[in-house]
Amino acid sequence: MVGLSPSACLRRVQDLERRGIISGYRAVVPPSARGLGFIAYVSVGLSRHSNDAQLAFERACIAAPAVRECHNITGASEYLLRVEVADLAAYKQFHSDVLGAFPWIATITTHVVMGSPKDERA
Fold this sequence. Notes:
Organism: Paracoccus homiensis
Order of helices and strands: HEHEEHE
Largest sheet: 4 strands, antiparallel
Helix content: 25-40%
Pfam family, one: HTH_24
Domain HTH asnC-type: 1-37
Keywords: Activator, DNA-binding, Transcription, Transcription regulation
CATH architecture of the domain at 31-112: 2-Layer Sandwich
Mean pLDDT: 94
InterPro entries: AsnC-type_HTH_dom, Dimeric_a/b-barrel, Tscrpt_reg_AsnC-like, Tscrpt_reg_AsnC/Lrp_C, WH-like_DNA-bd_sf, WH_DNA-bd_sf
């Protein structure tokens, strides 16, 4: 309860939307309900550290439907990807066709998700 009438609450929500504080809405559908039972986090290190190489890698990730998240990170690798595919065979194909096709990848480390006792991405 927020102590507001429905119309006052709606006006506040609309104001938050106009100001860009609320930027959108989405349905949270589990990967398994979309036929995507294999989830992995993949750290990727690049052999070239130029802006051009990074932008090219980011464009490749944006174009790949299996890449649900792409984060530029600090540490031993430049990128952390969340990859969702149907199964191990589909991941192997993604690994070969997407990651294997990019010329400046130096390292790839895959961490397969076995379970998610806490997941608050919404």
